[in-house]
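Below is one such protein, fold included:
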Amino acid sequence: MKQAVELFGTTPDGARVERVTITGGGLVARVLSYGATGQDLRLDGVAHPLVLGAPTLAPYFDEMTYFGALVGRFANRIARGRFALETQAWPDAPNRPGFPSGILRPGEVYHHGVRYIFRKETRRIRHARAA
C-alpha cells in the first residue's frame, strides 16, 4: 500500500486542506482532511470514479456540502432518541430504561443541539508521506 499527501486547497478562513492518496490492491482512494471527505475512489479496470467528488475544494462549501461523507458505525443513530406527537411516543431501537419521557408537556422547555459536526473540521494528516 502506498500513501501520499498534497495540498488540495484552503478553507474560507485560511486553513490548509490536504488530500491523502492511498493506493493498493487495484484501488486508489483520495480523502480530504476537510471532514474526512472521500473526494475520489477508482478501481483498476473501471473507467469512471466510484464516488461523486469535485476536482476543487470550493464546491464542498456550497452545493456539495455532504458529498463524500465518510460515515462510521454510529451513523444515523442517536442514543435513546424518541419522537412524540401528542400522547403517542415512538421510541427508537436503543430505547433504554431511564430515558426521559418523549412527551413535551405545557411549561416544559425543549432543548436540542449539536455539539460536534465532524465534516466542518479540518483534520491534521499523520503517517502519510508528502507527494
Observations:
- The longest strand covers residues 2-10.
